[in-house]
Amino acid sequence: MLKSIRINFILLLIVFWGCSPNKIYEKKYKFDNYSWNRFNNLYFEVPINDIKSNYNFYLAIRHITQYPYRNLMLNLTINTPSGEIRSKEYDLRLRDKDGKLIGDGMGDLWDISFPLRKDFKFSKKGICKFEIENKMTKIETPGIIEIGLIVKKAD
After folding, report:
1. Phi then psi for 17, rounded to 5 degrees?
2. What pLDDT, in 10s, does the model give residues 56-98?
3. Burial of 60 (0-12, 13-18, 19+ CB in 10 A)
4. Which helix (H) or strand (E) is 18 found in, with range?
5. Is the CB of residue 111 less than 8 Å from the CB of residue 59?
6. How far apart are alpha carbons 86 and 97 in whole angstroms?
7. CATH T-level fold of 24-153
8. Which residue among 5, 51, 76, 112 is least enclosed by CB atoms within 10 Å?
9. What is the b/e burial string over 127-138, where b = at least 16 CB atoms within 10 angstroms of the residue's CB?
10. Percentage of residues in the chain having pLDDT higher than 70
């Protein structure tokens, strides 16, 4: 019974997330052994065909309950089609001040997404390149299952 409820919940989430008409891009990197190596930078290439719209960027994180830290530190670098480069460090909270996990949990899996940039405007069509760097102090960040980038047209 519990397994059936989990499967139905996962299918509902997939349908819900997949039906966003404004979503233009989504890609996720899965990590072997649920660990993100500090030197394993993640790269995304997003085609930008509409420069009249504004865009929102989100980071999606899936991790296990045993994730040992309160936060995840990373750096996002954006290389726009016009050649502009923007870089920003993030300190993303995965636990609240009491140590409870934040996000949507099911069993030992937790999903959370963070807005990275809102209403970003492109001046030129082409490929926008994103690079995400792990800025945690240890070589391995255990407990991370996957990291993804979602790009949506702003409403």
Report:
1. -70, -35
2. 999 999 999 999 999 999 999 999 999 999 999 999 999 999 9
3. middle
4. helix 2-18
5. no
6. 30
7. Jelly Rolls (2.60.120)
8. 5
9. ebebebbbebee
10. 87
Residue type, 111: D
Secondary element (H or E) of residue 150: strand 144-153
Residues 6 or more apart whose Cβ sits within 8 Å of residue 75? 87, 88, 89, 90, 132, 133, 135
| Contact assessment for residue 44 and residue 130, using Cβ atoms and an 8 Å cutoff | yes
Length of the chain: 155
Strand boundaries in 104-143, DSSP class E? 104-106, 109-121, 126-134, 140-142
Query: Which amino acid would we find at residue 96?
Result: D
- 148 within 8 A of 59, measured Cβ to Cβ: yes
Instruction: Report CA-CA distances (Å) from 152 to 20, 28, 48, 62, 126.
Output: 9, 15, 11, 19, 16
CA angle 100-138-144, nearest 5°?
A: 50
For 153, the token pair is 């047209």
User: Token pair for residue 109?
Assistant: 């899996």
pTM of the model: 0.84
